[in-house]
Design a protein that fits this description.
This protein has 317 residues and is of the alpha/beta class. The protein has helices at residues 35-47, 63-72, 97-109, 125-128, 132-138, 151-162, 181-184, 187-193, 224-229, 237-248, 254-264, 278-285, 292-305; strands at residues 12-14, 52-54, 81-86, 114-119, 141-147, 170-174, 198-201, 268-272. It has an eight-stranded parallel beta barrel, surrounded by four helices. The longest helix is centred in the last third of the chain and has 14 residues, at 292-305.
Length: 317
């Protein structure tokens, strides 16, 4: 086993959008970010106790990792945790593609270890899991997680790691009010039973569940998320209106309610942060306690919306 226990925060910070180039059509989010602005995000997050940063080589083909490393420069390495990912679909043809991609990630982020290293997508679990073992033994990675894996694949990865005295220590899947496949497939129950933290990503559905967007104010044109969500915003109106009302009762926003819902479900939401002001919402969200009735109401409204937001990269759970 790893010598230290994985520390799981109430909310982790996502940097998928940090991989956008800022050019229209080049990136999922249509983000135009500055180095100084991202440094402000880091400063405010760190001072409020949000210290787990999630990225991946696939986010802008390394741009997110590099931007994150630059934004964290000067902070003591022990004051934050880094979470990044090995993507099998991006593996090279060298003798050890996993170690090769890890070294590139470490270089971009300016560190010599990763706190939590994920197999990003399930490809060939029996092939891609064993190379993680020597990286765990060397300390280059401290903990291993699997992302976008189904129950069978999670169990297989855990068995492979277990033969060397390690284990799958975290699961990360798309999980939101609009997409609860991991719950319906029993993955959340599996994680609870085996004391494995579940990290939920796309909790805000790339902004569609923040309450900021509607048919009259759609997501930024030229972005992938606009292509996915703008056509269904009218079907989300009843849900986002109710989220906004629940937020208003608590001095919070619809986005805060979506985050609080994910926490109430026993998950650690990974929330994308591109502006320092977003940290205020995370502070509010981690203090919100939704009732069982409110959770059931939101899920019923989400089911009525009948919107399928499974990403093209995701398999059926």
């Amino acid at each position: 086993m790893t010598s230290n226990t994985l520390s799981v925060p109430a909310v982790a910070l996502g940097t998928w959008a940090w991989g956008d180039s800022g050019e229209a059509g080049d990136g999922y989010f249509g983000s135009r970010l500055s180095e100084s602005g991202l440094r402000e995000v880091v400063d405010k997050a760190q001072s409020n106790g949000f210290t787990l940063w999630d990225t991946a080589v696939a986010y802008g083909m390394g741009r997110s990792e590099k931007a994150l490393g630059q934004a964290l420069a000067g902070y003591d390495r022990s004051s934050y945790a880094l979470s990044t990912k090995f993507t099998p679909q991006l593996a090279g043809d060298g003798d050890d593609p996993v170690a090769d991609l890890l070294e590139q990630s470490l270089d971009r982020m300016g560190t010599d270890y990763v706190d939590l290293y994920w197999i990003h997508n399930a490809a060939d679990v029996a092939r891609w899991t064993p190379p993680l073992i020597p990286l765990l033994e060397s300390g280059r990675i401290k903990h291993v997680g699997v992302s976008n894996h189904n129950l069978e694949e999670i169990a297989l990865a855990d068995r492979i790691l277990g033969e060397a005295g390690f284990r799958v220590e975290a699961v990360q899947n798309h999980f939101s009010l609009l997409y609860r496949a991991s719950e319906r497939a029993g993955i959340l129950d599996h994680c609870r039973k085996h004391d494995v933290p579940f990290f939920s990503y796309m909790v805000l559905e790339q902004g569609a569940l923040t309450g900021r967007y509607n048919p009259a104010n759609p997501l930024p044109e030229g972005s992938n998320r606009a292509d996915v969500y703008n056509g269904v915003l009218h079907r989300l109106q009843a849900l986002t209106d109710r989220m906004g009302a629940l937020g208003a009762e608590r001095g919070a926003s619809a986005a805060d309610i979506a985050t609080a819902w994910a926490i109430a479900k026993g998950t650690t939401p990974i929330i994308g942060v591109t502006q320092a002001a977003y940290i205020d919402g995370l502070v509010r969200a981690r203090a919100i306690e939704l009732t069982d009735a409110e959770i059931a109401e939101l899920e019923a409204l989400a089911d009525t919306a009948d919107v399928d937001t499974r990403g093209w990269w995701e398999q059926e759970m």
